[in-house]
Design brief:
- This protein is an alpha/beta fold.
- The chain folds into 3 domains: 1-39; 43-177, no CATH class; 212-226 and 237-343, no CATH class.
- The chain is built from 10 helices and 17 strands.
- Strand 2 (56-61) and strand 3 (64-72) form a beta hairpin.
- It starts with 8 loop residues before the first helix and ends with a strand.
- This is FBA_2 domain-containing protein.
- Residues 191-241 form the Sdz-33 F-box domain.
- It comes from Caenorhabditis tropicalis.
Length: 343
């Protein structure tokens, strides 16, 4: 057997940098010296997805799933369909995960949670403490299932900045507890399926680019407060887009009251909203709310479109109907779906 560990440190590192991620990890398990010398010096171009519930991970390389691994006893092994070791002490799993990250220097693209039994509160807290101290950046946290008790613990204790928080659970057994502020940074996107607990104070504490909630219990007055706070430059300065579906219809005129909003003609007004590097949306007409720095919040009233086209007869008919309501002091304009684009 070639005495690799007897070579000079830089030679070993040059060799290690050529190995695939799994090969590097398996070599690092041989001894303390193997782990010390095998730490990859350059960033791996593989992205890792960790599932803390099933204790599995997989790699994404060039947009494709590359390799799956599962936790078995004290280490990760190539996944061939067998179940992971879920009965192992959570601290051992976290130590093994830390070892993997230390050695491979991979990106941590996604962390998946199911915040429900058999995961215990103590295990969740231990995991959150470990994540908060992690040097590796986390791009996305995905919570697919959750009890309210565990979700509340996560929101109150997690401190790691992330690009995206996505919660797919649509039936969290909310007990009425108020979460007043977001306690960690969400840089890009907050996405929630059904979010009855979300209140105006929490919304105003967010400085993310995009907020999407499929079912939110918010009044026209609170949504008005949200818009005016943005307009006055007090909160939500990084906001690019809002996508809300309210629990019940609310009055659009109350939502924009006091904001100096203008209902624009789709035949003469057309703007484009850009989100990210590739997502472009054309908006014809809509309600425009201007801020002192020149930025405009646009609430579509004739729909939004992926292509640059002129207004059709249906757009004009809908605009004229809305214009009559807009100019009437006695009429209300009830809607449940609210898109807000910041131009």
């Amino acid at each position: 057997m070639f005495p690799l560990l007897q070579l000079p440190y830089l030679c070993i590192q040059n060799v290690a940098d050529q190995w695939k991620t799994v090969e590097l990890y398996e070599f690092s398990l041989l001894s303390k010296r193997a782990k010390m010398v095998s730490k990859r010096t350059k960033v791996d171009d593989s992205g890792m997805h960790f599932d803390f519930y099933s204790r599995r991970m997989h790699f994404i390389k060039d947009g494709d799933f590359h390799r799956h691994m599962r936790f078995e006893q004290n280490r990760f092994v190539v996944d061939r369909g067998e179940p992971s070791s879920l009965d192992t002490d959570i601290s051992v799993f976290l130590q093994a995960t830390q070892h993997f990250l230390d050695v491979t220097n991979c990106r941590l693209d996604e962390v998946d949670f199911k915040l429900k039994p058999p995961l215990t509160v103590d295990q969740l807290i231990m995991t959150i403490v470990w994540l908060n101290g992690l040097k590796t950046e986390i791009k996305e946290v995905l919570i697919s299932r959750a009890t309210w008790q565990m979700f509340e613990i996560f929101m109150n204790r997690f401190r790691k900045p992330v690009d995206t928080l996505m919660v797919l659970e649509s039936d969290i057994d909310w007990d009425g507890t108020i979460l007043k502020r977001l306690k960690f940074e969400i840089k890009d996107w907050f996405s929630f399926q059904r979010c009855l607990w979300l209140n105006i104070e929490f919304l105003l504490s967010m400085n993310t680019k995009k907020i999407s909630v499929d079912e939110i219990d918010i009044s026209a007055q609170d949504l008005n407060m949200f818009l005016r706070s943005w307009q006055e430059g007090k909160t939500n300065q990084n906001l690019n887009m809002v996508d809300f579906v309210t629990c019940s219809e609310i009055d659009v005129k109350e939502v924009v009251k006091g904001c100096g909003g203008e209902l624009m003609d789709p035949r003469t007004t057309k703007v484009m909203s850009r989100y990210g590097e590739t997502e472009e949306t054309w908006i014809r007409g809509g309600i425009h709310i201007r801020r002192n720095d020149g930025r405009v919040a646009v609430i579509p009233t004739n729909g939004s479109h992926w292509v640059d086209e002129d207004a059709d007869d249906d757009d004009v008919e809908e605009y004229l109907k809305h214009l009559e309501i807009w100019n009437s002091e006695d009429s209300v304009w009830m809607e449940k779906v609210f898109f807000i684009y910041i131009i």
